[in-house]
Write a structure and sequence with these properties.
mainly alpha, 82% helix
């Protein structure tokens, strides 16, 4: 992870931090692992038998959005907290 000066970090908004390479890389890795586990817990039988419906696919997409959102939010908040401690 690249450490940014706290003044640079403080001047960035929530969305620019959320879309930064550091956060995006970390978030995508976490999303792939957690989202896949959750998808198999909730829809494993349909995935393995290839009997997915449109509704099931939509639910699986939502299943991946949850860890993505949580991971992004926590990463940005942690970066903001670290920046405020160093000032």
């Amino acid at each position: 992870m690249v450490n940014r000066p706290s003044t640079e970090l403080a001047s960035q908004g929530l969305f620019s931090l959320a879309l930064s390479l550091d956060v995006a890389t970390r978030t995508i890795k976490i999303t792939l692992v957690v989202g896949t586990v959750l998808a198999f817990i909730n829809h494993g039988d349909k995935i393995l038998t290839m009997t997915l419906t449109g509704k099931s696919i939509f639910q699986i997409v939502l299943t991946y959005l949850v860890p993505y959102s949580v991971s992004t939010w926590s990463s940005v908040r942690a970066m903001e907290a670290n920046a405020s401690k160093s000032t």
